[in-house]
């Protein structure tokens, strides 16, 4: 669980979804809606599924569970796994 004292979190969202047109733009909406810029986007097709990784080096901690919930609500998403890679206490200026 994230501590309220940790303002930023390094996080990866690993998503498995049905391979269908329009999927990738729908996955970017939860980030864009919150004015978050992704550091990493990787996607590949495996049969009828898309394997997508969306990552941020310093995501506001309070946004992690909100974005996860939004990703889970996307039509065609089968699974969302959140990988917390470490806390970031301060951002370099």
Question: What is the structure about, briefly put?
Answer:
The protein is an alpha+beta fold and 93 residues long. It has 2 helices and 4 strands; from the N terminus they run E-H-E-E-H-E. The chain has one domain: ACT domain (Alpha-Beta Plaits, 2-Layer Sandwich).
Description:
This protein has a single domain, classed as 2-Layer Sandwich (Alpha-Beta Plaits). The chain contains 2 helices and 4 strands, in the order E-H-E-E-H-E. The chain is about 25% helix and about 45% strand. The longest helix is centred in the C-terminal third of the chain and has 12 residues. With about 90 residues, the protein is α+β, with helices and mostly antiparallel strands. Strands 2-3-1-4 form a 4-stranded antiparallel beta sheet, covered by helices on one side. Strand 2 and strand 3 form a beta hairpin.
How many angstroms separate the termini?
Answer: 27 Å
Radius of gyration: 13 Å
- Main sheet specs: 4 strands, antiparallel
CATH architecture: 2-Layer Sandwich
Low-confidence stretches: none
As for the number of domains, it is 1
CATH topology grouping: Alpha-Beta Plaits
Q: State the fourth-level CATH superfamily.
A: ACT domain
Strand runs, count = 4
Residues in β-strands, percent? over 45%
Shape: elongated
How many H/I helical runs? 2
**Could you give the order of the helices and strands?**
EHEEHE
Tell me the structural class: alpha+beta
Placed side by side, the strands forming the largest sheet appear as: 2-3-1-4
CATH class: Alpha Beta
The mean pLDDT is 90
Helix content: 10-25%
């Amino acid at each position: 669980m994230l501590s309220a004292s940790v303002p930023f979190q390094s996080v990866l969202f690993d998503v498995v979804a049905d391979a269908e047109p329009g999927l990738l733009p729908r996955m970017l909406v939860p980030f864009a809606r919150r004015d978050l810029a992704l550091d990493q986007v990787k996607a590949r097709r495996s049969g009828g599924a898309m394997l997508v990784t969306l990552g941020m080096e310093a995501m506001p901690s309070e946004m992690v569970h909100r974005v996860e919930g939004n990703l889970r609500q996307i039509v065609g998403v089968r699974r969302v796994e959140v990988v917390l890679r470490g806390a970031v206490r301060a951002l370099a200026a």
